[in-house]
Structure to design on (238 residues):
């Protein structure tokens, strides 16, 4: 027996485990400075969704470094592989040109908002025909509804502008996430039922120019699924 192997037999078991343990691989991930309560640079560990992403990556054998930067830079730098992935993003046609997407990392129901004095009691594809609404520039989240109902659309950079236009009677309704709907009272608005049966999903994205993109996402999806089944990810209420 060699001197090295003999010396190993004399070490406590946990020390030999450390010697042969695979070293975690560093990986840089980009996100924005704030996305409601789910991602927030000011919160411990960056918010609950950031904690989940970090746990999923650790389950893949990575040592994740999550950086909170400007959203625009998170997108462009990740597209250029300065960061190996970025989150959370909605899926649309433009982003699909630059990135591959993971399985959904969070699903959110869609709520309908109208002014408190609106005569609309609920929203259907029939009763919104020809009405006006608002959404973010580049968003295609509700495109099928908007097109099929021939809505008059206004696109803006900040969703607060949509809320303000609703309050000022420039539009008839908006579709929003539960987080936005929490602010409805501040804009003299209310939530009403809708029959669209819509959910919005957020994703982690990896650049199409990354030669390992599909491999990373396959491992990411498997790790997420495993941790979900073991109930080891934080439950997030959008």
């Amino acid at each position: 027996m060699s001197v090295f192997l003999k010396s190993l037999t004399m070490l406590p078991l946990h020390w030999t485990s450390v010697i042969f343990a695979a070293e975690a691989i560093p990986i840089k991930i980009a996100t924005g400075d704030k996305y409601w309560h789910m991602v927030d640079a000011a919160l411990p560990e960056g918010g609950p969704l950031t904690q989940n992403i970090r746990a999923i990556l650790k389950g893949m054998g990575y040592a994740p470094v999550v950086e909170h930067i400007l959203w625009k830079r998170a997108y462009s730098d990740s597209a250029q592989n300065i960061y190996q992935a970025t989150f959370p993003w909605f899926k649309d046609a433009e982003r699909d040109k630059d990135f591959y997407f993971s399985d959904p990392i969070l699903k959110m129901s869609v709520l309908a908002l109208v002014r408190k004095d609106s005569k609309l009691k609920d929203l259907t594809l029939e009763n919104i025909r020809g009405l006006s609404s608002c959404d973010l520039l580049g968003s295609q989240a509700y495109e099928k509804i908007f097109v099929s109902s021939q809505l008059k659309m206004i696109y803006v950079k900040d969703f607060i502008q949509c809320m303000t236009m609703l309050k000022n009677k420039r539009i008839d309704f908006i579709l929003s996430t539960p987080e936005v709907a929490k602010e409805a009272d501040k804009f003299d608005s209310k939530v009403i039922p809708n029959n669209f049966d819509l959910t919005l999903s957020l994703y982690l994205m990896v650049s199409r120019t990354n030669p390992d993109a599909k491999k990373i996402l396959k491992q990411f999806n498997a790790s997420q699924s495993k941790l979900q089944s073991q109930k080891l990810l934080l439950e997030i209420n959008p």
Notes: The chain has two domains: 24-107+200-229, 111-197. The first strand starts at residue 25 and ends at 31. The chain has a mean pLDDT of 89.
